[in-house]
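Try this one yourself first.
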């Protein structure tokens, strides 16, 4: 079973920066994708950034957010710069992979990011 623990959310002023971390533990096996999604009140969960064989970003965060991964620590990061009030949401880490022929799709508990003056 795979577990994800997120950290790094908080309150930041517009134009500020935050870095989110997501550490994976357990029987991880082969990773297909590792990424970040977000959900604002009243909205559906949406993709922010994901690493598969390449990297994809939502248009709304391109040039401001950077996803990276430390394979030795099984940790994925989301560096968020030039934050805007519309970036306010709960951010979720997601890991998709397989082990011993069984696929999994695991979510973290979410971390709140609030951008406000």
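Now uncover the answer:
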């Amino acid at each position: 079973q795979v577990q994800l623990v997120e950290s790094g959310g908080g309150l930041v002023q517009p134009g500020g920066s935050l870095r989110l971390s997501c550490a994976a533990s357990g029987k991880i096996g082969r990773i297909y994708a590792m990424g970040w999604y977000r959900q604002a009140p009243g909205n559906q969960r949406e993709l922010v950034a994901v690493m598969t064989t390449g990297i994809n970003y939502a248009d709304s965060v391109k040039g401001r957010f950077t996803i990276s991964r430390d394979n030795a620590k099984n940790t994925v990061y989301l560096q968020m710069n030039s934050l805007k009030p519309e970036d306010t949401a709960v951010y979720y880490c997601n890991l998709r992979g397989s082990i011993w022929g069984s696929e999994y799709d695991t979510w973290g508990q979410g971390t709140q990011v609030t951008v406000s003056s």
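Discussion: The two ends are 40 Å apart (CA to CA). DSSP finds no helices and eleven strands in the chain.
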